[in-house]
Amino acid sequence: MTEIKSNSENIIEVNDLVKIYKQGNVKAVDKIFFNVKKGEIFALLGPNGAGKTTIISVLATLLFLTEGKAIVNGYDVAKYPDKVRKSIGVVFQEPSLDGELTGRENLEFHTILYSMAKKIRTERIEEVLELVDLKDKQKTYTKNYSGGMKRRLEIARGLLHYPNVLFLDEPTLGLDPQTRRKIWEKIKELNKEQQITILLTTHYMEEADELADRICIIDHGKIIALDTAESLKSKLAKDVLAVELENVSNFNELKIKIEQLENIEQVKVVSESDQSQDMVEIIQNRLKKMGGPMANVSPEMIRQKMRKGMAEAMKDPVKFVKNLGKMPGSFEMFKYIPYESKKGIADNIEDNVLELLPEEIKAELIQIKKGVIPSKLSQDNILKINIACESGAKSITQVVQLINEMGIDIKSINMRSPTLEDVFLFYTGAKIRDEDSNRVKGIKEFIKMRKLRK
Amino acid sequence: MSISKSGKLNFHWAAIWVIAKRELLQFWRSKTRVISSIAQGFMLLIIFTFGFSSFRFDVGGTEIPTQAFIATGMITLAILFGGIFGGLSLIRDKLFGFLKEMLVSPIKRSEIMIGKTLGVGLQSVIGGIIIMLISISIGSFPLELFLIIRVILVIPVFLILSIGLVGIGLVIASKMSDFQGFGLVQTFLIMPMMWLSGAIFPWSSVPVPMQVIMAINPVFYGVEAVRFILTGVANIPIYVSLLVISVFSAILIYLGGRSFTKIEAS
Fold first, then answer.
1. Of A225, A228, A239, B45, which has the fewest Cβ atoms less than 10 A away?
2. Which of B95, B103, B105 sits opposite A114 (nearest CB)?
3. pLDDT of residue B4
4. How large is the ipTM?
């Protein structure tokens, strides 16, 4: 009955996996293929919405795949979901504990679902509680746990039934640096001492860099690169020049100028360093601060709401704008829209629609329309760029010369080794001009469509 | 769900029970829910009993005391509310992510559904029993030795009825991703089921078209069965009422099991 493993070294085999969400006809995963070796820590790295969680959900048999094949622990996920489930542990991105049960009760529930023998149960529960340092909190309701404690308990729960593979979906999302470190230590410990294969998803570069034996970079549901962190970095470049540009006024123009730096021999890529925070996290933190019923909304819900919001905006912008003021965190969201997009909105928005906006957003848009750069930028109108090159020492003079010729002031230059972030930005197409022209084009398209419908 | 060679249902009963137990534990731990469910039933019972005290209630050609008529109705409604709202609590499990913990475990989807149904069902049976005890204590039924037998006999009816009603809640909840559709369910399902159940006014005194509409409401048969067992009179023969609610519950167990196998969770 059981599928014979084609290669006993691989514990997970994914072949041309496709997942299309019927709702909205979205292709979340597009012909992905990779193998995970036994005993390995394997990371799926990619921005939000890249399809990482979808892949994990398919492998954990929570979603049905549309096309392709996936084998976990020797079993086809489509044919033997029950057998796959028995051999895996899953720690979801959003908490999945029952807050009305104590830590220990949550674990007991799990042991019964996995039909563990009564004798082993108590012993094993003690063991995993010890492992994640939650023994003294086992009798507390999990709704009173901190974020880090919840995460640790969930990891403990994932381990209870001796899984061969542990799936960790964004294991440290929204945790503070110390807690993150602690969880990293635990993950490494588990992998080393208990020989558990770990497949994790993350959008934190440091996390992938720190933990993973191999990293699979994913964007828009496709694999972009797959290798060890070291070789991903060395393939990109030997050195990176991190340049801070001062007194920047016209970002668009500047970015096109800067792209010329790539013409310098031995310079491989020029990219804008990513300073934007994760919007979902920002909103979540804000909601938490506000308290009340919205305080515990899951990131998935926020993402859903945002998607819904975008769909609404396309349908009826006036109504969307009206509602913007009522939506918690809307102003925060607006703040993090890139300047170019704001400019696009400001240039095309009609006055009657503008009137409906919350005061703060309205004021900012009017300023932008007048050509004033928003205060946040004018205070520190600095653009940080990264230049990946074969030899920093050799290229630096040419880079400085060219930037000077463009009439741009340099605040500082640093030379460093490439990080995973550079690799990521390179592969996910954060090449300056491409991204921005797409962004502006997108807005123009949207406004054109709107006018057509009228 | 599979059937072994010996013909025995091969369920993982320990897992089913732990899921059911969780429901009961949650109900017990949130004291506000326990108190509000008792208070609601108590208020309705008192208000309707005194409000309708001068009305005459005719059931199957026999006149029965107002307090007995209202009490049997309110007991059944307690099961209606407890069942459907309890079933809808699956949305909470979805939102708080706990459903995923169950879905990713090796137990079968049908087993999760049965555990959930059993737990919520028992919870609403307990709700019904509480209202029944309150109504007995305020003298809704004549105190006689035979009442003890009636009370014992009616509890299985509570269970059968509530399983079907929980099933409705679960099937709806399995298709909803948040509480937005909650109002719709309340307005277009629970309210009609309540008003058209014969719990508050007698079936025999309404116009024929309405009688027909009431006759397609499963809760109507629940009210009929409960009323017959507790007071001895009904419009519909007891075996018909029992058959209808049993078939109703069987269908919803089937539908519930099917909707659970289709749940996807990312």
1. A228
2. B105
3. 42
4. 0.87
